[in-house]
Structures
1.
Amino acid sequence: MNKDEQEQSERRHVIAICLDEAEDVDNAVQSAVSRGKDAASSVGETIRETIQAVRTARPSVVMVRVNKESLAKL
């Protein structure tokens, strides 16, 4: 099991704890939602950084798909 799988397993374990009272359920849901938002924010930031790195490395790259006829005209 790699590090990410271990972390996911640990997170699941925290949520799987027995919930006896409505307040416990409320706290568990709020905690799960908060962690989900943090994860989404982290993913968004990673994607943003990756795109920025690509733009910086290749400021003028443009990809165009052409068919054989168009390629022959070029």
2.
Amino acid sequence: MAKKMRTWTAAENAFNNFRSGVQREMTDRVIIAGLEATKAGGDVAGAMAAETEACDAEWPRRAAAWDAERRAARADAADPAATAAPASAADAATAAAGDAAEDADDTALRAEIDRLLTPSRLRVAGWSVKTQRAFIVALAETGCVSHAAQAVGRSRQSAYALRNRAPRAIFAIAWDVAIEQGKKRLYDLALEQAIEGREVPVWYRGEQVGTRRVFNDRLTAFLIAHKRGPAHPAMSDYEASAMLPQMLGALGMVLPDPLAVRIATEKAIARESARDPAQDRPGGRWGKLYPQEEDELFPKLDS
């Protein structure tokens, strides 16, 4: 069974490029050693084996030198002040004050992101969770906001005000799903009328003498050309309808701010990328010059 693939870290990619170059160089050295032995009439296999052994012995030293250079470059990038000229006491105090202010800003930003990531409750006088649930059920049945609001004893304006107050609330999402279900019923009725037509009375000299069936060609053309969009951009209509009962159970909750969610996700990805999974791999520090298994691909690189 094939092993699960994963994305290389930046350190693993750099190490792989470095080792590929060393492999090409040392392969050329072994081939040249064999050619020189052939010209000299010596032991070709022995010469190539000796050069291969020398390359294998040289590889750990070159890999260690590469890692030392990489760690030194990372240290310089992380602490540019270490390579800068000594600053005066006033400059040091100014820099310390700036760092303190920056840390305070970072702390405030993290606190604000944590606040935005915390789900909240939607509390509005006259719109309890029970009332919201009854409104959504009525809206799904009728497809009409005015009728649904009247069914729960509230005004149409207050219903829209509640939705506009918290657009990330489950109430607003369930509203869209309920409207789509109402549209489906309306679409079914319109489709039936387009196919079956409708009866209209026939009048003669002020009296109804019969009926006739008429068809609306414009309605038929509209239904053929019309394509309804999904109620939610991340869910199909089927998925949204299937989740409506769960939404009814979660009414009153306001979802986290999407910008805060994106920032938190990006920070989590950055932390995961900074962590070197090669540190958890078994085997020697520098692996093999010509690895055969996945666990031999990368050394335990210092982060």
3.
Amino acid sequence: MENIKRDHRFTERLGLWLKAAPDVRDYAEGCTMFLQLTGRVVMYKNLLAVRDMPRLETELQAKYDFRVRGLTHDQVAEMSAHVEKIVESLELSDDREADSCSLYSRSSSLDCTRPSSPDFKRGKRQDHDTLPPEIQALYVENLSVLRRMREVHLRMRSLSLVDHPCPDSERYPFLKELIGLDKKYRGNWKAYDEYEASAKTE
């Protein structure tokens, strides 16, 4: 029973069973999942001995609803931790510093590299003007991506007041968008940095 507490695939299988029409459900499978979830052997045997689909459905639906709430909260917690790293690395909460990162950072990791000396290499490649338009566009696009990330973070932060925490259901869309934008931001820099002009000209 302990092994399935955090098993997302088990929860998905349970959800599919509940969504199926009662007359096509595998009753024995439902009883087995009930036993796995509860460990109640006596009731499991009773359900097998006397078919009672409504009772089994009620029991499994309650377990499913509880698991989905828990999984959603855990997922939001994991995403929040990820976003905190993104916010810190790109300094999204500080407009001045974020602008600095947009100009200088070309790191493919979560560490936002800032200029520490006059010799620090700027974000734009020396051969930028000779690159294909689609590669140049990645550099320009990332300025917009970072700007959008700051906007989304600001909106999410405005909803998360100390005396009125933002519910998971409301935070989730913002977290998902920020993570997606960060992935695009990193991917754009990677493609921009690693493009080899010589490979196209040969």
